[in-house]
Specification:
The chain is α+β, with helices and mostly antiparallel strands and 173 residues long. It contains eight helices and five strands; from the N terminus they run αααβαββαααββα. InterPro entries: CBS_dom (IPR000644), CBS_dom_sf (IPR046342), CBSX3_CBS_dom (IPR044725), Diverse_CBS-Domain (IPR051257).
Length: 173
């Protein structure tokens, strides 16, 4: 028998193995950007002016079924954010006298913002540490969106459903 001869082995017949998971797929959530969430949701950003009343704000929150309004000045520049929590705190401080108050008396003036290119994981970490649920998305000084923890959860659930469908298709064929 020549020295270069090798008998045929079972492994010679096996196809290359594939894996349904990889480093890329297992870390895809950490690669998600704020823009991915903005693309998957309603683009409308509901705003209110500082001089408007809390009554007007509460009506907008109710009518649009949202939890926060971005407060902008006449030029459209971001000057604050008004959340349900802000209103509830004021209700506790001034029961029966809250709705006529101006938005500027209750809004949060120090607003943390993010950009569309920010990693979603980083933004969610900031929201969790800061104990707030809404963050305006800006491009320079221009307001381009609003992201909430609920938006991020909804985005991730959709991604999980897609991943499950892909796995099912791999199994079924």
């Amino acid at each position: 028998m020549p020295e270069s001869y090798r008998p045929h082995l079972r492994k010679d017949d096996e196809d290359k193995r594939t894996a349904s998971q990889s480093v890329a797929t297992n870390t895809s959530v950490s690669n998600a950007r704020v823009q991915d969430v903005l693309t998957s949701k309603d683009a409308a950003v509901h705003t209110i002016r500082p001089q408007q009343t809390l009554h007007e704000a509460v009506e907008q929150l109710r009518d649009h079924r949202i939890g926060a309004l971005v407060v902008t000045d006449a030029n459209g520049d971001l000057v604050g954010i008004l959340s349900e929590r802000d209103i509830v705190r004021k209700l506790a401080d001034t029961p029966g006298h809250t709705l006529p108050k101006k938005v500027e008396e209750v809004m949060t003036r120090s607003v943390e913002t993010c950009t569309a290119d920010d990693p979603l994981v980083t933004v969610l970490t900031r929201m969790t540490k800061g104990r707030f649920r809404h963050m305006p998305v800006v491009d320079g000084a221009q307001l381009i969106g609003l992201i909430s923890i609920g938006d991020a959860v909804h985005y991730r659930l959709n991604q999980l459903e897609l991943e499950a469908l892909q796995i099912k298709q791999l199994i079924v064929g």
